[in-house]
Task: inverse folding
């Protein structure tokens, strides 16, 4: 399969990441089959994509005249059989192995043999996911960043079994989306979370030990290291529960105590202080 053979892309899961992934493929001229389990998730995703396209028009990234074309390329479906028409697939269903297993094995049976299956997982082993399918050499990681239409990076992750052809095609496809792909081998947390999560964790330890307030920790990193967001603001945006889950994956997968989740992070998660999504984390978002 060549880049020019890819005309239709299926995106499995229309949540936070799936709607963004569908958006960037449709914007780049691909037909997109967007699949979720229920019509209301598809409606929500199309609503979000419409709003995000409006924002891009306002910023001059897209013309008003281009918007209907982008929307017309999106085909929301709840029937998995509809993905048979896809030439490339990106999976973005919830980060639970059992859900991924069910979705990937079902998709694997429906897709043509030459079609590449990519996963957007942030922490599950690509090699283990590849092994669930009958196309492990055509399985690859495509780790988009949130918010997908805005962030330039795609970490393209090579599972142990990924062929050179599938890997190279995924790198090329990422460039066609206007993204900058970076090649990474499969390992817990890849590069993004392996480097980011210890930073967030250490920032949480600084707060727990009374070294500084969250505002002070974030100010040091923004003003002194030129980070656009402080690590604790970013943790609140990602979700403190997601951070703890990823730290567990790093701790277990790499076996090094340096990845142990900070007790304060775990305490906040226990209290239901998950960050922005629960209106409270290191900061309060009430009102
Ligand atoms: N949120 C992030 O910042 C982020 C960043 C990078 C990677 N990821 C990864 O992306 C993936 C998706 O995360 P998300 O934040 O978009 O999750 P989400 O919960 O927002 O969305 C998941 C969607 O998948 C749907 N779904 C569930 N079962 C399905 C099925 N069988 N078939 C099709 N759709 C199904 C759900 O209804 C939901 O709409 C995860 O693997 C996550 O680790 C997330």
Result:
């Amino acid at each position: 399969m060549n880049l020019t053979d890819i005309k239709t892309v299926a995106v499995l899961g229309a949540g936070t990441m799936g709607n963004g992934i569908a958006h960037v493929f449709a914007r780049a001229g691909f037909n997109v089959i967007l699949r979720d389990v229920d019509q209301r998730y598809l409606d929500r995703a199309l609503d979000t994509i419409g709003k995000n396209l409006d924002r891009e028009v306002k910023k001059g990234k897209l013309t008003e005249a281009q918007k209907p074309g982008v929307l017309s390329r999106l085909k929301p479906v709840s029937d998995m059989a509809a993905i048979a028409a896809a030439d490339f697939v990106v999976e973005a269903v919830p980060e639970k192995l059992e859900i991924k297993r069910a979705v990937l094995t079902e998709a694997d049976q429906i897709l043509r043999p030459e079609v590449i299956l990519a996963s957007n997982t942030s922490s599950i082993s690509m090699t283990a996911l590849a092994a669930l399918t009958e196309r492990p050499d055509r399985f690859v990681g495509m780790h988009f960043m949130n918010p997908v239409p805005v962030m330039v990076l795609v970490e393209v992750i090579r599972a142990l079994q990924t062929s050179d052809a599938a890997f190279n095609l995924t790198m090329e496809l990422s460039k066609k989306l206007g993204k900058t792909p970076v090649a990474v081998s499969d390992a817990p947390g890849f590069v993004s979370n392996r480097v980011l999560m210890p930073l967030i964790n250490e920032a949480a330890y600084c707060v727990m030990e009374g070294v500084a307030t969250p505002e002070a920790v974030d100010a040091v990193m923004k003003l002194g290291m030129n980070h656009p967001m402080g690590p604790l603001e970013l943790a609140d945006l990602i979700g403190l529960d997601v951070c703890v889950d990823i730290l567990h994956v790093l701790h277990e997968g790499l076996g090094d105590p340096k990845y142990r989740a900070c007790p304060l992070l775990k305490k906040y998660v226990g209290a239901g202080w998950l960050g922005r999504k629960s209106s409270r984390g290191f900061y309060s978002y009430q009102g």
Strands lie at 8-12, 31-35, 74-77, 88-91, 116-119, 139-144, 153-158, 180-185.
